[in-house]
Write a structure and sequence with these properties.
Layout lengths: L2 H6 L8 H7 L3 H13 L1 H17 L8 H27 L8 H10 L2 H6 L8 H26 L6 H28 L1
Helix pairs in contact: 3-5, 3-6, 4-5, 5-6, 5-9, 6-8, 8-9
Amino acid sequence: MNVTTLLQLPFTRTLGWKELQRRQISIPSLAWLVVVPLSLLPPVLLYYAGTHYGDAFVAGFGERPWRYITTILFLAELLTFFVMGWLIHAVVNSEEMSISYHDAYLLAALAPLPLWTASLALLIPSLLFNVVVVLAALGISCSLIYHGLQGLCERGDNDVVAMSATYTVMAAGVLAWGLLMAIVWAY
């Protein structure tokens, strides 16, 4: 699979999804090769932003204990992957659609990719720029889940069912993301 195909995943339900499904990448491989390295991006870049230009970013941002905050954030991201895989499997399996555990965890590993890469915006000390990038990444992540459900599910021709499942998964995902951000701001 090439990079162009991966970049098109959020915008199509056909291109690339069946190929990913056929590869049968194991859940531990997904965790070690995709989730762990990419979920390191937000904590590392948040640590960098907080220690290098924290107060220029947001008042009081530089005074926080970033070692602890970013460690907790990283562990919470890993836990979120496993919970989201289970949630996708539980929400999607019904009479209209079904998804295997493998495919649910594949989607749980791919869905946060836009958010993880959006953390690269933390290299620029602008709150407005970072908010815009994160909101765009959140939209792409929603699209990735929607098209992923259409591409990976069996009997998934019903767009309304796929939208409903996407809404439920994204609501839980945004809640989890909000809790992760609350950890950052509250600590």
